[in-house]
Amino acid sequence: MTAAMNRPLVVDLDGTLTPTDTLVESLVKVVKRSPMNLLRLPFWLMQGRAGFKEAIAAQVGIAAEHLPYREPLLDYLREEKAKGRQIVLATAAHHSIADGVAKHLGLFDHVLATEAGHNLKGKAKLQAIQEKVGGSFVYAGDSRADVPIWKSAQAAVLVDVSPTTAETVKQGVPIEREFPGEEAGLSVWLRALRVHQWLKNLLLFVPLLTAFSFFDLGKLVSMVLAFLAFSFAASATYMVNDLWDLENDRAHPRKRLRPFASARLPILHGLAVAAAALFLAFGLAFTVSKGFFLMLLLYLVLTSAYSWVLKEYVLIDVLMLSLLYTLRILAGSVAIGIATSSWLLAFSVFMFLSLALVKRCAELVSLEETGKEATRGRDYRVTDLVVLWPLGVGAALSAVVVFGLFISAPETQGRYATPQLLWLVAIGLIYWLARLWVKTSRGEMHDDPVIYAIKDHGSRMTVFAMIAVMLAAHFLALGLAL
Predict the structure, then answer these.
(1) What φ, ψ does residue 9 adopt, rounded to 5°?
(2) In a 10 Å sphere around its CB, with 0-12 CB exposed, 13-18 middle and 19+ buried, how is residue 20 labelled?
(3) pTM score, two decimals?
(4) 33 vs 354, which has greater pLDDT?
(5) Which residue of 33, 179, 260, 462 has the lowest C-beta tally within 10 Å?
(6) What does the DSSP assignment read for 378-404?
(7) 433-444 confidence digits (pLDDT tens)
(8) Quick one: pLDDT band at residue 454, thresholds 50, 70, 90?
(9) End-to-end Cα separation, the chain, in angstroms
(10) What sections of 312-384 are H helices per DSSP?
């Protein structure tokens, strides 16, 4: 084995040095740049594999500094490089990607990659390796397609190889090192689906609560189905959005750890699961009603427009977020056939605009703490905080004013047994919203204020108290006169 370790070490890129597939990532970027490129893909494919990769590379590039890498393998390569060993990068990826990776890592003596008219895969890669370093080399790869190269090598480095492939290689080739992959369990998929974000869809139950129809079993069942439909649809859009925003997420201090940004989950698997979740969501929506199905479609159109285009524009993104939250309440009304009051809609728009601005301010506060000046992929700067602070607090106070006018409205006076109790709810709203803004200014706010409010003990207690007071105001006639 000592002799083998003195031989050149040839390393594959996709799936080996990086757990992701750079061609698939490039395709995502090509479609993101222009959806019309979907129509061009068949014509590019007609140019052959090398021509196809050349056409894709001409459209977009991959930022090598943002790619996820297998750190244990990188550490091993650095150790071998320090000993004077020759390290070669050999990949079927386009040479522009391979050259970028080599320049970023500074480890490789030679780079072998796909060039115009020459796809470096399988036998072509083996031939290129033998021409460059001779017939004596060690190969590091990850897939069954690498078996012919391993069989021609003097030793193998196995990286995240399946048990079957590993057994095949071990039968005829000495193993220099093994780097097992990290298996993506259920918890990783739940993170990718963002099941915790399903809590946002509890907003669908607001019309059921404000109409005090929670004892109607038929409406309750419809609402549960509607909740599941929205949740599966939201998970599908979250996954597609994560794939759409890979490079920006990798530049973010926390988002880079997401399952797709870190390449713990393959992109193609994510697309398949997203499609299945969307299919299930549509089926459940049809079960509720045709009207609710149309509301779900509207939600998907708007959230897609937000993810693909609108989130890049200052203020338009927070307005869209507030509308998407309000749309959940409207969808809940459609699901159970109860009209939504104009009071509730006005209150919701101001409330959720404030919460959306909390999210943006929290991100900017975090950037300010790390010394950065602007967000990546969104048109916000740290200097914008002087405008966003008062705008967000003003929206919060506007929501409270709308709620105060609602208390004095004739329909409220007739619907609640003791409407005067609702002023306690108004006080609770002032405290709750002000507390969120204080937490944001201290840099303690989670990226998503809705999730933070649900998880935070103080917020939960305040919200439960406000709901209890609303129920008491509706059912209890206390004979108060203000």
Answers:
(1) -105, 115
(2) buried
(3) 0.79
(4) 354
(5) 33
(6) S--BGGGHHHHHHHHHHHHHHHHHHHH
(7) 999 999 888 888
(8) confident
(9) 90
(10) 316-336, 342-369
